């Protein structure tokens, strides 16, 4: 029998996975801040390893969001809980937009990772009842959509959330629906497969040791850490700059 979302225990393995993603994010943003203050060469975070880390980190956050959507609503959409969580993420995304507009008005975040998670969560509700194969086919189509559907018809700013525009954009964080809805859908499909194999039930009955509980702690508070880590990092780098220079 499938466990309902309301009775499903918290799964430490997912919190640990979120902690790993948060660690990668903090490492990337620390180097980004060093680049911002001139400690590493310009363009360092836009190519090579650091660019790959940024893409992998964003993809992992979206994949885990897809997994979480299935775990929370796979047995039936709990609309009140969904609306509450959606409102929190949307409010956090708005805060990021306002904060980055103040700090980087020429490259502020108008559709970053939180914006993408919010919209993908809304769109993802329609995929919950689809067969796994159909979800994966849809993920492939979403991933390659920018290669085949990019058009000047999407160049107006109100279409930039799609990722199908032809004009270059300047922003410090950008995860549009196409192609970033793809890892979210993969997360939904993966969660469904694991449900069918009984893996979530098994993971939910594990009792992590003290070390695992410490490692999973950041993952249980990922949104707060996401919102606070950059102001803290920038403050630390700025302070070190004032001391060293």
Structural notes for this entry:
It is a single chain. 67% of the residues lie in helices and 0% in strands. The protein is mostly helical.
Would you kindly provide a brief summary of this structure?
The protein has 245 residues and is an all-alpha fold. It has helices spanning 12-36, 48-73, 79-103, 113-124, 132-149, 177-196, 199-203, 210-220, 222-244.
Which descriptors apply to this entry?
245 residues; mainly alpha; single chain; 67% helix
Major sheet: size, sense and barrel closure? none
Number of helices: 9
What are the secondary-structure elements, in order, as H or E? HHHHHHHHH
Strand content: under 5%
How much helicity do the residues have? 55-70%
Give the helix/strand class. Answer: mainly alpha
Q: What is the CA-atom radius of gyration, in angstroms?
A: 19 Å
Low-pLDDT stretches are none
* Termini Cα gap: 64 Å
Shape category: globular
How many E strands?
0
Mean pLDDT score, rounded? 93
């Amino acid at each position: 029998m499938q466990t309902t979302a309301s009775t499903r225990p918290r799964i430490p393995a997912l919190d640990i996975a979120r902690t790993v993603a948060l660690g990668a994010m903090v490492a990337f943003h620390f180097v980004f801040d060093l680049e911002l203050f001139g400690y590493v060469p310009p363009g360092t975070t836009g190519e090579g390893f650091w660019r790959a880390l940024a893409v992998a980190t964003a993809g992992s956050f979206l994949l885990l969001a897809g997994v979480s959507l299935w775990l929370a609503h796979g047995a039936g959409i709990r609309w009140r809980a969904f609306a509450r969580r959606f409102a929190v993420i949307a409010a956090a995304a708005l805060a990021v937009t306002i904060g980055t507009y103040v700090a980087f008005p020429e490259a502020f975040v108008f559709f970053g990772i939180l914006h993408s998670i919010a919209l993908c969560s809304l769109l993802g509700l329609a995929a919950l009842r689809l067969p796994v194969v159909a979800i994966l086919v849809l993920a492939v189509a979403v991933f390659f959509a920018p290669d085949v559907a990019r058009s000047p018809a999407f160049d107006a700013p109100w279409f930039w959330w799609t990722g199908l525009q032809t004009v270059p954009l300047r922003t410090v964080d950008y995860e549009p629906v196409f192609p970033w809805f793809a890892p979210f859908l993969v997360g939904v499909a993966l969660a469904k497969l694991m449900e069918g194999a009984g893996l979530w039930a098994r993971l939910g009955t594990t009792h992590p040791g003290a070390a695992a509980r410490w490692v999973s702690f950041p993952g249980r508070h990922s949104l707060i850490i996401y919102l606070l880590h950059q102001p803290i990092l920038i403050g630390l780098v700025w302070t070190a700059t004032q001391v060293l220079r």
